[in-house]
Amino acid sequence: MSRTYIPLPLRRAIAREARYRCGYCLSPELLSGLPLTIDHLTPLSVGGSNEPENLWLACRSCNESKGNRTVGIDWETGKTVPLFNPRTQSWHEHFQWDENGTHIVGLTPIGRVTVTMLNLNHEIIVMARGRWVAAGWHPPAE
Ligand SMILES: [Zn+2]
């Protein structure tokens, strides 16, 4: 059994808790057509665990962009800050949608660093969001 093994019942519980959407970009599993992945908030390689408190749901793009990183440098303040924690922090406190609903805007140093490091507005997701907006499926309510 690999270090990254998460039992299926735990995967399902995390997915339900995360409302079947990526904790960072809020892309819903149903619209992406791909199963979301389990993100280790603190990566295993820097001492994170497989306990539920360290797990959340993320899309493949966000999870891969995040990699083993936990902090980044905010371009506006020059300060090193932690990446957004979707389990313990409020998305709307750190991010908002732009007026088109296609781009995520960082409102705080944590939000800005996370937008940049996780590449939350990459070209393909922005095009997909444009279609989701046109269909009336996006941005997510609340
Ligand atoms: Zn994502």
Describe it for me?
The protein contains 6 helices and 6 strands. It starts with 7 loop residues before the first helix and ends in a 7-residue tail after the last helix. It has a two-stranded antiparallel sheet with strand order 1-2. It has a two-stranded antiparallel sheet with strand order 3-4. Strands 5-6 form a two-stranded antiparallel ribbon. It has one domain (8-135). It has helices spanning 8-17, 29-32, 60-66, 91-94, 109-117, 123-135, and strands at residues 37-40, 55-58, 71-73, 80-82, 95-97, 104-106. The protein has 142 residues and is an alpha+beta fold. The mean pLDDT is 94. The longest helix is centred in the last third of the chain and has 13 residues, at 123-135. A hairpin with a 6-residue loop joins strand 3 and strand 4 (80-82). The structure holds zinc ion (ZN).
